[in-house]
Amino acid sequence: MNFLKKGTVVWLLLTALGKISIAQVVIPVITSHNAMLLQADKGGDLKTIYFGKKLADQAEYKKITEVYKTSADYTGVLNSAYTSSGSRNLAEPAISVTHADGNKSLDLKYISHKIENIGNDVSLVSILLKDPAYPVEVTLYYKLYYKEDVIEQWSVIRHHEKGNIVLDKYASANLYLKAGSYWLRQYHGDWAKEMQPEETELTHGIKTLDSKLGTRANLFEPSMFMVSLNKPATEDEGSVLYGSLEWSGNFKIDLEVDPQDNLRIIAGINNYASPYALKPGEDFTTPAFLYTFSDKGKGDVSRKLHTWARNYKIPDGKGSRYTLLNNWESTYFDFDESKLSGLLKDTKKLGVDLFLLDDGWFGNKYPRNGDNAGLGDWQENKKKLPNGLVSLVKEAQKEGVKFGIWVEPEMVNPKSDLYLKHPDWVIKQPKRPEYYFRNQLVLDLANPAVQNFVYGIIDSLFIKNPGLAYIKWDCNAVIYNAHSNYLGKNQSQFYVDYVKGLYKVLDRIRIKYPTVPMMLCSGGGGRVDYGALKYFTEYWPSDNTDPLERIFMQWEYSYFYPAIASANHVTDWGKQPLKFRVDAAMMGRLGFDIVINKLSASDLLFCQNAVKTYNLVKPIIWQGDQYRLADPGKNNVASIMYVDSAKASAVVFNYLVNYRYGVESKPILFKGLDPKKHYRVTEVGLYPGTKSALAGQLIYSGDFLMTIGFDPSVNSNRTSVVLELNELAGG
Ligand code: GLA
Predict the structure, then answer these.
(1) Which ligand 1 atom minimizes the distance to the CA of 522?
(2) pLDDT, mean of residues 524-534
(3) How far away, in angstroms, is 523 Cα from ligand 1 center?
(4) Average pLDDT of the chain, as a whole number
(5) How far, in Å, from the CA of 709 to the mean position of ligand 1?
(6) Which of 131, 506, 545, 557 could form a disulfide with 571 if both were Cys (CB 3.0 to 4.6 A apart)?
């Protein structure tokens, strides 16, 4: 393989030159534009000697240590590629253990490494480290996606001591970067306020991003972040690292500017309340820390991450998605068979693919008529659905639409049969009062019986309703009173085993139902991470569907996740016109959650036309390259563009985000087009009875559109404008 050869060349160059001061063993971790060089020195310490843009002349790597000087006192410690604790290292460790004899020291030395080609474009570097004093070993894995410049890094820890050892800390990755300054972009949030960005310069010491929520772990803070080197990167300029842990539970990311002014990043499962006992001979595999780097700004790095996610992570990432009508905000819990029959007809009338039945369809002794009862009792409510889901699914088929359903299978209301029958399945402290989040408690997925139960909910829905075409999987509570009846004295395994249990269930579901679309919902975006997105075709960014808010949120999510995975619904949130709401929802997988039969004739016609327009442009939005043209946080008009891979067609969304007097758009510089091609610009998605303000034959070269720009004429009368660009025949 091309890329493997390139990697090997570096290694050979460095070792063959023999006398090079840095070379004992140099391990190249190389992708198409980037290089991370690891070196094992004479004493066996494995350290990072370079991380960043690949050099044009690989022979020059040997000069790195002439320039990057690390004092002998710190080498192999501050720049360790996987810092162990209890011996020479006094910095924040990646791993710390308590041996079977109670000793707390660990000193990992390089033993060997391998570079394997494991697929077209993908290779795996593995490095074995061992402690000379105790039979503990760690293998570091780096899965390299060459073209996309993406790395997934994890570690496997094992030992052969006489008894268990305890893993006090067990990070996935330990990076080391060198720059004049480091600019962290991080996110915080809460329900309906997801993905609020903050960008600050990191100062000396440790900045920690973490979660201790157990489930819905990203509610207050997700694990994704970016770090710009030397100055905050822009869309097209600057060096920037994106990172995120592929784990749907507690995480901890430490960003430490060390005494030598370098940046150490240590990322992994949060060890909070989680020292993990490991038996002799057993493997502990950490989740992957995902990272990617570009010296060409945030736009380049996120387009590569989108491509990676569609190619390798999100199920059916290169495929299609169903447009849908959801009934959550149009009915809440108040529906019956005849209301739902009407909604199936509305689904058809609107022209979308699927009807999604939300919360409230289950529970009999404790009917789910509000959020305080019924969770756990996954039988159809006989009053609301006397003929069961089966008849609804059949009716949907007759109408020619698909049928999807909401579940929240990890949860239980104390008012439920399940709670009465299986109190031992519920996470709670035996000696303390129960404490609820949205009137509910979390089931103990560390327990295999609970895993079977949760799997069985989904499996039996599909068995009983073979026509079922879509699942919305919700998760509305965090874990209070973390205690597993099943784990007995091993409570410190709980947080880790919960997530592993969840992934076991999802693995089983995906083995049996590999293609069914599933939405990852967590009362909004409380669980958006690539650990979960291995199983889900799309995620719910937020319950906040106010389109103005969504423009900001979707902008931030778009740094990390491709539009095909973003479930965007048109609702009655916000004060914007219907067209604005629909246009904002188009930047992803379009859905509706409004009362269709109350729409005026022209609103209905507008929505029907919008669905048709969307069906034409959705392949560009889902599979094209995204360019963030104008940031809603810095401009009066926000613009986002999607360009297909042939640079033949594009869609540009423009939204007024500042409603002060006299605000209107200016020319916006497009990106990603072919400068030599000529494009026709057309406004699409007009409201019935209105005309585009963009008159005449709008034909321009890509060069013109990217140099002079185009004014979409957004103003208080035209608050959102969607443009389609099509290459003129003949170029
Ligand atoms: C959560 C979801 C909503 C809806 C409700 C149902 O809040 O985010 O979309 O499904 O649960 O109770």
Answers:
(1) 8
(2) 98
(3) 5
(4) 95
(5) 41
(6) 545
